[in-house]
């Protein structure tokens, strides 16, 4: 292939990638309530870049990082995905590079020489490569021990005098609720890692240089997510966040005048994790007491089928004006909710059903649901729009088509409000019928929060300079 023909092929492929990226950005906007992109400007506008990304959510991870950056990202993907000819052509058109993992292709590991050569050609052309150094998806709140592939690519490129200096950037993906529709996600780009010092060592001690750079990449990735080194601590931290993080956010808003966008949830979660580690080392009986209180309170919530939000609202005793406004909004929004459910109910429920039945593990669920939604929503929307066009004409059909995604999002938001309202009504009914039981819930939460407040104050005094 001549240079001109190769350039034309890259141009066509980039146009295809741009189309896929635009489509992916729409579905990411539709699927997630909020995507917080942090420090994307650390990725330079030109030159070779190696992105080292954690891997909590399968295909969605690539859509998020690709959607956050204006540059084309060439992802390293397992060769198992290339077995289907149609999928292989699609991935190749998007610039993906197949790699052979031992667990997938034990007899074809020698072909990774081709994968490395493809990476070097991509970097020499001044492009961006995205790699998942953990090697597989996982549902744990930590970065697993990464493989050495990213460091080997970076060092062999840098020491080979292949082109412009390489920029290595760790990337952290953090999901509030991995499996939930309309949840929040954070895409954070870390401090670039200088390769030159490791390249100098690589010329004398290659293995030591690879290990040292791998450790630096590991630490860089851990800095961009909530990294919980001990898996057994994850459930405790999750329970603490569910019960206490909302109180901390409200405290920051009221005492420091911060807005919701000014509060970094990752920093808050990391401080909670640091506080737990602090007390586990110095006062393990205190951590055990808090964990026991959390389990007891969560048990009461489950027994009475009440959400923590309802108990918190009862403790706050919101002003009558706020309650009236909420009731008025619920009344006005009911017709919009009904319309959204009628026209979007089936394409919403069908992907969820398929994901529950077919996803092999937790990290596959959201990707399966998203891919099913990409098919189900346009199919149902097209069919419904065609029916309206046949019955009412083109003008009504166009207006109806525009209303479909908007009404779906409004209906889902309203549904969340209905769930919260139902929980509050159940708690109110419980208060009327069994005042003592409702009192136990409220007293249990207040005692738990008081214990956490004392722990927070003690932690801040013991670690001067720390803050929530």
Tell me what you see in this structure.
This protein has 468 residues and is of the alpha/beta class. The protein folds into 3 domains: 220 residues, 3-Layer(aba) Sandwich (Glycerol-3-phosphate (1)-acyltransferase); 73 residues; 116 residues, no CATH class. Helix content is 65%, strand content 8%.
In short:
This protein is about 65% helix and about 10% strand. The protein has about 475 residues and is α/β, with parallel strands linked by helices.
What is the arithmetic mean of pLDDT?
84
Spatial strand arrangement across the major sheet: 1-7-6-2-5-3-4
CATH superfamily of the largest domain: Glycerol-3-phosphate (1)-acyltransferase
Structure annotation, total helices: 15
Share of β-strand residues: 5-15%
The SSE order reads HEEHEHEHEHEEHHHHHHHHHH
Specify the structural class. alpha/beta
Residues in helices, as a percent range: 55-70%
How are the SSEs placed, and which strands pair?
Blueprint: H1 3-31, E1 34-38, E2 49-53, H2 59-68, E3 73-78, H3 85-93, E4 97-99, H4 112-124, E5 128-131, H5 149-159, E6 167-175, E7 184-189, H6 196-202, H7 206-222, H8 234-256, H9 265-282, H10 284-304, H11 308-316, H12 320-358, H13 362-392, H14 394-433, H15 435-462
Parallel strand pairs: 1-7, 2-5, 2-6, 3-4, 3-5
Antiparallel strand pairs: 6-7
Index terms:
468 residues, 7-stranded mixed β-sheet, 15 helices, flat
